[in-house]
C-alpha cells in the first residue's frame, strides 16, 4: 500500500464516500499480486526465517541467524537510501509481526539485506559545525495548533506571580503588626490554636509549592517539544532529552547548558519554594515580649489626708524604717521612694511576676533650702560625761542662738575631733512656726581636758572651734502630680505629670510640722534600740580620723554610706554644697517615710493607667520573615522571565501526556519510526547510536489531495539519519532499563 493510499485511508468519513466504487477492489488486487510474488520468492520455507514464531513480544530482541553460505537471489538487493518524510513508496511494515500468515513475506531479499547489515558504529563526538543544521522545509503548512501546557500559559503564570507578591507583602505586614502590637497573641493559648498559628505559613507555602510542581513538571516534559517547534535542534536537546528523570539541581545545570531558560526558571522556583517551606517553620515562634496596655484599670489605695497639724511621731515608726533601711533589714515600703512619698496604687488583673503598672498620682515632695551662715562661740562648758557649746548662727535676716552638746567632744592631746550637730531654733528667738529654722554645723573642736569638771560637774573650760561650716535651712514640702511606674517590688520610674503641673500643700499641714515629727521620732530612740544613741564613739566610716555626731547626724552619715557606699574624708564636708546636699537628702528621705506613716490614709479610688507585662507571646521572627520574602522576591523575578518566554500559542495538536496521545503524534513520522524500529527493549546507548548527530523539528505537512479536509499531517522531521539507522529490525536489549529511581538498587 502506498503512503498516499494510507493517507487517504486515514481521512475516511466524507472523502471515503467520494471514492470510485471499484477503488477498494483495485487496491486488493494489487496487494494480492505483491503477496503472490513475495510467496514465490520465499518458497524455500519458513525455516530460513531469521527468528521462529514465539509468544514473546515482537519488541523483544531476537538473534539473527545467517547461514554461512547462501544462494544469492536474482532479485535486486534492497536499497538503504534515506527516505524523506514525503516519500510515497514504501512496502515496509512499521511493526514486525509473529503471525503465521506473515511467514511467506520474509523473502530472500530481506534475508540478504539483514545479512548485509553492519553493526551500528558508536556515535562519534560531534565537532562544532561538522553537521549543518537542516532548515525547515518550505512546503510545511503554517497552521495554528491547539495544545500548549496549561500551567505554562501566561494567565496561569501571572496568577502565580500575583500570589508570590501577595505572600511577600502579607509576611511583611505580619512582621509590622507583630512589632507594633507586640506579638500575634499570647503563647499560653490552647495547644491546637497555637500550632495553627505557627503552622499556617508552612501550610500555605506547601500548597503553593505543590501547585507550582505542575508548572515544574510541564516545563520539563514539554521542553523537547517546545524546542522542536521553534526549529531544528540536535537529538541531544530534543528526542534524547529527559529533564523529568533528573534530580532538580542536575536538571537546572542541564537546562542552563541547553539554554532552556523556561525549564531552569521553573525548577529554580520549585527549589526556592521548598527552601521557603523549610524556613517558614521558624516564621512564628514564642518570644518574651513587653506588652503595654494604655487603658488599664487600676485602683488608688491611699491618699494624703489634710489635718489640723501633723501629729508628732511619738511611736518612732519613721525612725524605725530609717534604721531598718540603713541596716539592710528591709526595703522601701510601697508608697515611698527615696526622696518622696506617693499614693499607693495597684491593678487587680495583673498577676504576673515582673509586671509593671503606671499611673498619675499625687506625691509628697519635702525640701530643705539651706544657706551659709557664720558661727560664733560664746563659751564652752565640759565635764567628763558631757560637753556643751554656746553658739550663735547668723545669716542675712536671721540670727539663732542655741547650744551644741555631746559626750564625745573631748579629745586627746594633738588629736583633732570632727563633729556634726543638727539642731533647731527661731530667728531672733521667735517661737512663730514660720520663723523656725534648722541649723547645721560641721567643724573641728579642741577642748582642754585638764580643765574639765570631775564627774557630772560642768565647768567652763578652755577650747575653740578652729574650722567649721554652718548652715541655716528652711523646710518646705509640696504636693505634685507625677507619672509613676512600679512593679511588684518597688518603684521603677517617675516623671512629673503634665496634667496638673502646679504644686500645692495639704490643708492644716505646715512644713515645720514635718520637722517636728522628724525630731520627735528620736525621743523614742532609746525604746526602739534598747539604748540611748551615743555620740561618744567615733564613726567607723572615717577611721582613723575621729568624727563624732549627735543621734540625728549619725543617721545622716548612715544614709550617705547606704546610697554611695563610702563617706569620703572629713574635710569633704567643709564644702558648703556638700554639707547642704548631705543634710537636705536625709531630710527628704526621713520626711517621705514620715508622710507615709502619719499623713497617708487608706482609699479605694478607681483610675486609668498603663500596664506593662513581659509575657511569652507568639511573634514573627524578623530573620525568617525577611529570608522568605527574599526567596519569594526571586520567585517573582523568575516568574516574570517565564511569562516573557513561554509560547504565546499552541505548538502541538494534542496533549502528549498519555501513551495513546504520544503514539498518535508520532504516527506519521515514518523515518523516525523506522529508525527506532526494534528498540523497544534497547538501552539508551542504542538510541544514541541511532539518533546521534541528527537534528529534529516539528511541523505540519499538507495532505496529498487538495480536497482533503483538515490541516495536514503533524510530523517530526529531521536528519541526516545514517543509512544503517534506517532499517535494522531489532536491537540488543539494554537490560533493566528505566529511570534511575525505579532501579532495583534504589528500591
From TrEMBL:
Q: Which residue intervals are annotated with compositional bias (Low complexity) in the record?
A: 84-101
Q: List the residue ranges of the region (Disordered).
A: 1-139, 727-747
Residue ranges crossing the lipid bilayer per the database entry: 156-175, 195-212, 261-285
Question: Which keywords fit this entry according to its UniProt record?
Answer: Membrane, Transmembrane, Transmembrane helix
**One Pfam family this sequence matches:** DUF3433
What superkingdom does the record give?
Eukaryota
Composition-biased stretches, type Polar residues, lie in 26-45
Which residues fall in a compositionally biased region of kind Basic and acidic residues?
125-139
This one is known as Uncharacterized protein
| UniProt source species | Magnaporthiopsis poae (strain ATCC 64411 / 73-15) (Kentucky bluegrass fungus)
Amino acid at each position: 500500500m502506498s503512503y498516499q493510499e494510507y493517507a487517504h485511508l486515514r481521512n475516511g468519513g466524507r472523502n471515503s464516500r467520494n471514492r470510485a466504487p471499484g477503488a477498494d477492489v483495485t487496491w486488493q488486487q494489487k496487494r494480492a499480486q505483491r503477496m503472490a510474488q513475495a510467496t514465490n520468492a520465499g518458497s524455500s520455507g519458513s525455516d530460513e526465517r531469521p527468528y521462529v514464531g514465539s509468544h514473546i513480544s515482537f519488541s523483544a530482541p531476537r538473534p539473527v541467524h545467517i547461514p554461512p553460505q547462501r544462494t544469492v537471489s536474482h532479485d535486486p538487493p534492497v536499497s538503504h537510501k534515506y527516505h524523506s518524510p514525503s516519500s510515497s513508496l514504501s512496502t515496509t511494515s512499521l511493526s514486525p509481526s509473529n503471525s503465521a500468515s506473515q511467514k511467506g513475506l520474509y523473502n530472500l531479499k530481506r534475508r540478504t539485506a539483514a545479512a548485509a547489515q553492519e553493526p551500528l558504529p558508536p556515535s562519534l563526538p560531534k565537532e562544532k559545525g561538522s553537521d549543518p543544521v537542516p532548515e525547515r522545509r518550505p512546503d510545511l503548512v503554517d497552521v495554528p495548533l491547539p495544545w500548549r501546557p496549561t500551567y505554562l500559559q501566561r494567565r496561569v503564570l501571572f496568577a502565580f506571580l500575583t500570589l508570590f507578591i501577595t505572600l511577600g507583602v502579607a509576611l511583611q505586614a505580619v512582621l509590622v503588626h507583630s512589632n507594633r502590637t507586640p506579638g500575634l497573641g499570647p503563647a499560653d493559648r490552647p495547644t491546637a490554636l497555637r500550632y495553627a498559628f505557627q503552622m499556617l505559613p508552612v501550610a500555605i507555602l506547601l500548597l503553593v509549592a505543590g501547585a507550582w510542581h505542575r508548572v515544574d513538571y510541564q516545563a520539563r516534559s514539554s521542553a523537547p517539544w517546545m524546542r522542536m517547534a521553534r526549529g531544528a535542534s540536535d537529538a541531544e536537546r530534543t528526542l534524547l532529552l529527559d529533564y523529568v528523570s533528573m534530580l532538580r539541581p542536575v536538571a537546572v545545570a542541564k537546562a542552563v547548558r541547553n539554554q532552556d531558560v523556561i525549564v531552569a526558571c521553573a525548577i529554580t522556583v520549585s527549589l526556592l519554594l521548598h527552601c521557603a517551606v523549610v524556613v517558614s517553620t521558624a516564621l512564628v515562634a514564642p518570644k518574651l515580649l513587653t506588652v503595654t496596655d494604655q487603658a488599664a484599670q487600676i485602683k488608688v489605695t491611699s491618699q494624703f489626708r489634710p489635718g489640723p497639724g501633723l501629729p508628732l511621731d511619738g511611736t518612732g515608726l519613721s525612725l524605725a524604717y530609717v534604721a531598718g533601711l540603713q541596716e539592710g533589714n528591709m526595703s522601701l515600703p510601697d508608697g515611698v521612694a527615696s526622696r518622696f512619698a506617693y499614693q499607693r496604687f495597684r491593678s487587680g488583673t495583673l498577676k504576673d511576676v515582673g509586671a509593671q503598672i503606671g499611673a498619675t498620682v499625687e506625691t509628697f515632695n519635702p525640701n530643705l533650702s539651706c544657706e551659709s551662715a557664720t558661727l560664733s562661740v560664746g563659751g564652752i562648758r565640759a565635764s567628763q560625761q558631757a560637753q556643751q557649746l554656746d553658739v550663735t548662727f547668723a545669716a542675712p535676716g536671721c540670727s539663732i542662738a542655741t547650744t551644741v552638746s555631746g559626750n564625745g567632744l573631748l579629745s586627746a592631746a594633738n588629736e583633732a575631733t570632727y563633729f556634726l550637730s543638727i539642731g533647731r531654733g527661731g530667728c531672733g528667738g521667735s517661737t512663730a512656726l514660720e520663723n523656725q529654722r534648722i541649723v547645721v554645723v560641721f567643724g573641728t573642736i579642741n577642748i582642754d581636758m585638764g580643765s574639765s569638771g570631775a564627774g557630772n560637774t560642768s565647768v567652763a573650760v578652755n577650747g575653740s572651734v578652729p574650722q567649721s561650716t554652718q548652715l541655716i535651712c528652711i523646710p518646705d514640702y509640696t504636693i505634685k502630680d507625677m507619672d509613676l511606674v512600679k512593679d511588684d517590688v518597688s518603684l521603677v520610674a517617675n516623671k512629673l505629670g503634665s496634667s496638673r503641673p502646679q504644686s500645692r500643700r495639704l490643708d492644716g499641714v505646715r512644713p515645720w510640722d514635718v520637722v517636728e515629727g522628724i525630731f520627735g521620732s528620736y525621743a523614742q530612740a532609746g525604746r526602739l534600740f534598747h539604748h540611748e544613741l551615743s555620740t561618744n564613739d567615733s564613726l567607723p566610716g572615717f577611721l582613723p580620723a575621729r568624727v563624732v555626731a549627735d543621734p540625728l547626724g549619725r543617721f545622716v552619715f548612715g544614709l550617705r554610706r547606704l546610697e554611695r557606699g563610702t563617706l569620703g574624708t572629713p574635710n569633704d564636708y567643709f564644702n558648703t554644697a556638700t554639707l547642704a546636699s548631705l543634710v537636705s537628702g536625709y531630710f527628704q528621705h526621713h520626711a517621705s517615710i514620715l508622710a507615709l506613716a502619719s499623713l497617708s490614709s487608706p482609699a479605694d479610688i478607681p483610675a486609668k493607667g498603663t500596664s506593662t507585662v513581659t509575657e511569652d507571646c507568639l511573634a514573627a521572627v524578623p530573620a525568617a520573615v525577611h529570608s522568605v520574602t527574599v526567596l519569594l522576591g526571586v520567585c517573582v523575578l523568575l516568574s516574570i522571565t517565564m511569562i516573557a518566554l513561554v509560547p504565546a500559542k499552541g505548538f502541538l495538536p494534542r496533549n502528549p501526556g498519555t501513551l495513546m496521545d504520544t503514539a498518535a503524534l508520532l504516527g506519521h513520522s515514518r523515518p523516525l519510526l523506522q529508525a527506532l524500529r526494534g528498540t523497544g527493549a534497547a538501552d539508551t546507548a542504542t538510541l544514541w547510536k541511532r539518533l546521534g548527530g541528527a537534528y529534529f523539528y516539528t511541523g505540519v505537512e499538507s495532505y496529498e489531495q487538495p480536497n482533503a479536509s483538515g490541516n495536514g499531517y503533524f510530523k517530526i522531521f529531521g536528519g541526516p539519519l545514517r543509512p544503517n539507522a534506517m532499517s535494522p529490525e531489532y536491537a540488543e536489549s539494554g537490560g533493566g532499563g528505566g529511570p534511575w529511581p525505579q532501579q532495583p538498587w534504589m528500591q
